[in-house]
Each structure stands twice: as structure tokens, then as C-alpha cells.
Amino acid sequence: MTGILRTLIWKNVLLKRRQPTGTCLEFLIPLVFIFLFVALKSNTDVVTVAEGWSQQNVDVQNCGFEVPPEGKNKTCNYPYSKWTTKVTPWTQLGANFDGRWSGHPFAKLFLATENEGGQKIIDMFKLWVQNVGTIEGGTSNFFNTSTFVVGNGTNSELTSYLKSKEYGAPFSSNSPECVAAIVFNKMDFENAQFEYSIRLNTTSENPTFRAPRSDLRPTSGVQQAILWSSSSPNPRYIQKSFMTLQQLVDSFIIDVADGKMYKGFSSLTYANISNSEMFQPFGATFIPFPTRGYQWDEFFDYVTEVFSLAFILMYLYPVAKVLSVLVREKESRMNEMLKMMGVAEEFIILSWYVTYAFFFLGLALLVAIGGTVILPNSSFGMIFLLFFLFGIGSMAFCFAASTCFWKSKTAFLVGDIMYFMGYFLYYFVRSESIDPKPFLPLLFPQVAFALSIQITARLESAGAGASFESANEPIDGFTLSYGIFMLVVDFILWTLVGWYLSKVIPQEFGTSRPFYFMFMRTNSENQGQVDTDSSLPSLPSYEKVESSLQVGISIRNLRKTFDTPGGVKVAVKGMNLGKFQSEIENGKN
């Protein structure tokens, strides 16, 4: 068995040697891509951004203090700088709903309290907003149409609703989408003790309220680049995001605690006060959230969107050659010749698997060596493993696709296009809002690899790098370890699919099996048994045997088998032959 496999592999090597140009291009084309990446990486900068600064390119230079040299674009995002906003919160809230949530007709701002009986606090808050909005000329009607209370308005009811099957199945006026939720945990106006929470929808594709988070790792894009307004030095979370909600609730507490609104729940009305006394503080001074120091890599700013695509293009020619080689063996009838010599089809396929496994092993090694320049923070072993698994996964995909072709040139072109089109499934699942990633697209090695290489780029651009230690770090709903696992699954899956299709798809030679052949009973248990003697069958189409003739030679159920490397081969099966005495045979026997 080992000898026949070694002979077939040597045959494959000889075939590759007879096509030196194509074989060299299988290595040279990927090397060109690696060289271009290395050249681009060598001509870009890596900047260590100081704590408190952002790499966002906003043209705001008047910081009022000395700018550290690590502040690459010198955006005023220092933790101790201050701005004053004069944006009326309900106006901004209304604008956000009218604009960014225009495609979400059932998007609502949810209101809740921690305890039963808190509905009166919610009513008081809504009445306060309505009155203040009217006084200031804002869009107060926003609260009448865009707020929602679940049940009795408790936080537990709100949480249960968001986790229930009714949420989003589909959204309607009775089961709206939650944009954000204000939860009044404790509103003790008598003792001036107040506690509330703001819960934001961060999973929507178009969230209105975005907030920086202090628990994000340095690899997070939100942590590295807090959103800024294009026309103001204020970060967007101050001018257009959750800070508008916070300022709204704080002003409500100040107004009510200061006696500007009757605190009695039986009479929710305003005292007779002037407009100038309402809604204090009208403006607020904010200190922005500090950001961690991080590493900014200019190279990945250029290639982030095309990084995975470039590597897919790099593998297109090797993939086309794999398809062409597998189909050419059928086209040239070499497979049939080998089968006639007793070689099992599984050994023929296995020999090409081993041949191209060594090829993709060498290619992965070259990429990993180039990765020491392109991905200096990443583990050599991780990069090698990722590209090797992608290579053999693509090889298995080619084996499955080759069963559908009978001409090598057609397989080279059409099969390669099929492989490339599979990559575009990646664009349907790459969004960070898709968490977790759907399973079916990951069954294509192109998609699993594209997601994995994008995570590698994110880790590398943050200075962390892809390694076995960071493989379980979730980024955009995906982990590098899961991507590697799916590449292994893809290799096994497409190998089994190719084996199955090679049995059931009709070929030029041989007989195809029914699609349910795996569930058919075999007669292997009867092989090797000697059949008992039986009389000649009665065949009316043959000449009747005279009773006076005596049988000289009688053969019944003759069976002959040969042991071959591919298993036992049956040469003669169940042959019956009778010769009478003094009978002479003429012509062909």
C-alpha cells in the first residue's frame, strides 16, 4: 500500500516537472503579492499614539496647551481639555430619530423604573420634557410619539421583553425596536438621592447613540477612534449621542429637586415661573472620556478593506492548477488506466492530496517568512498554520468542484471563477453587528479565511498581533481560533463531498452509483464462499440438448479473484460451462 502511494506521488512530481512554467508560476504569483505587501509595509509608518489622543484626522488645532509629539494628527482629545455645549437635548434627540433611524419606523426610546409603582416617575419625566420643550421651542412632541413603556414600566419587564421571542419578530407598534432605555433606579427627591441608568442599543446596524467604553481592549476600533463631529471640536457622544440623554435626565432632576415642578404625584403641573428659570443648567462643560494609548499602523489604514481580497487573489492561480490537474487525469484517461492496473480511485486522489499538501506547506512557509515584515507582532506559527489550513481547505474544495468538469481548460477557467465568487459571501457576514457569524457561509474556506485574516489585521494594527494567546479574543463577533477550526471542518467536509460526488455523478467511463448508495446493503459477506453445484438453466432460446449426449466437462459457478494493492479484484464471477463428449468447437471460443 505504501509502495503504490509512493509511486503515484512520484508520478505526480514527474507531471509537474513536465510543466515547468506552470509549476513556477504557482510559486511566483504568490511571491509577487508578498513582495508588494513587504514593499508597501516598509514605506509606511507605525505611530505609538499617546494616552488621551486619537488618530482621527480632524482639523482642530487650538487646544490651548502643548501638544505631545505622539499626538499624530493633534486632534483635541486630551483627557483634561474642556468644551461647552449649548445643544438643546430634545432637539438633538428628535433630529437623531428623524435622520439616522428613518428606516426604522418602530424604533422607540424605552422608559422604565426599578420598582413597581414607578409609572408616576415616568409620567412626570414625560410631562417635564413636554413643558420644557414648549418653552424653549424644541421638538417636545418627540416624546409623545417616540417613547415606549413595557407593561407596568419595570426594569425586569423591559429586560424580559428584550430577551423574548416577541422582540423583533417582527417589529411593530406593539413590539417596537429599542433604540435606548432610561431606567430610573432611585428617585428620592425628598432626600436628594438619585440613581438612573442609560441602556444603549449597540447591536443595530445604524445606532443613534454611540458611547465610548472603558472596558474595551486596545484592539477595539471604538476605543482607538472615538467618533468626532466634522464641524465641531466636540466628540459626537457629547453633541449627538448618549450625553444628550444624560443631560436631559440631569436637568429634569435639578428642576424637580429645585421645586420648579410640584413633586406631588397627584398633581403633575408646573409652578408659575419664568422661562429663564427653566431647565438649569442650560449649558454644560464636559471633560471627554480618556482613551488608552495604542499603536497606529499606517499600512493597515491603506490595506484593511482589501487585505483578505489580496490573499484570495494570490491563491487563484494555484487553485486553478489544482482543478486543471485533477480534471486532466480524467480527460487523458490516466485514471482508467491506473484502475485497470488494480489501483483504487481513493489512492489516486490521496496521492494528489499529499502532493499539493507539500506544495501548500511550502507556500505557507514563504508567506509566514514574509509575515515577519508584514505582520511583525504576529506569531510565525499562527500565520503558518492559518495559511496552510487555507491551502488544504482550498484543495479539498477543488477536489469537490473537479467532479463536475470533464475538460481541464473549462475547469481552469470556470472552476476558478466559482472559487472566487465564493469569497463574496464574506461581505454578507463581515459586519460587526452580525454576532455570532452564521455557520453556513463559514463552510466555504474562502469566507472562514477572509474573516480570520481580517482579525489578524485588526490585531496587528493594534500592536497585539495574531498569536495563540490572542486567538480567543472576540473581534466583530468572530475569533481567530474559531476561524482555524472552521478551516479544518471545511477540509473534511469538501473532501467527503468530493468523494460522494465522484461516485454518483456520471462519468465518461464506469457506472455511477445511485445517490443513496451509502445506505444500500452490500454482498461483501458472501465473497469468498464456494457456490454449490446446480443444473443447467432452462433457456428456451438455446438448442435443446439431446438426452443421448453425455457431459464430458461441467463447470458450475466458476469464480476467480486476484489480490491487488487496491483490494480483492474479481476476474471471473459465477461462470457456468458444459462440454459434451466428442463435441468439437469451431470459430471463436
Descriptive labels:
589 residues, alpha/beta, two-stranded antiparallel ribbon
Determine the strand fraction and express it as a percent band: 5-15%
Which geometry do the CA atoms define? Answer: elongated
State the secondary-structure class. alpha/beta
Straight-line N-to-C gap: 37 Å
Radius of gyration: 37 Å
- Spans of 5+ residues with little confidence (pLDDT < 50)? 54-60, 71-87, 134-139, 227-231, 263-268, 270-276, 523-536
Main sheet specs? 4 strands, mixed
Q: Tell me the count of domains.
A: 3
Mean pLDDT: 75
Order of helices and strands: HHEEHEHHEHEEHHHEEHHHHHHHHHEE
Instruction: Give the strand order of the largest sheet, numbering strands 1, 2, ... along the chain.
Output: 4-3-5-6
- Helix tally equals 18
Number of strands: 10
Query: Helicity range of the residues?
Result: 40-55%
Outline the structure in words:
The protein has about 600 residues and is of the alpha/beta class. The chain folds into 3 domains: about 1-40 and about 300-505, no CATH class; about 85-290, no CATH class; about 550-585, no CATH class. It is about 45% helix and about 10% strand. The chain contains 18 helices and 10 strands. The protein has helices at about 1-15, 20-40, 90-100, 120-135, 140-145, 155-165, 220-225, 235-240, 240-255, 300-305, 305-330, 335-340, 345-375, 380-400, 410-425, 425-430, 445-460, 480-505, and strands spanning about 45-50, 85, 105-115, 145-150, 175-190, 195-200, 285, 295, 550-565, 565-580. It has a 4-stranded mixed sheet, with helices on both faces. Helix 3 packs antiparallel against helix 9 (about 240-255). It is elongated, with a radius of gyration of 37 Å. The two termini are about 35 Å apart. Mean pLDDT is about 75; it is low at about 55-60, about 70-85, about 135-140, about 225-230, about 265-270, about 270-275 and about 525-535.
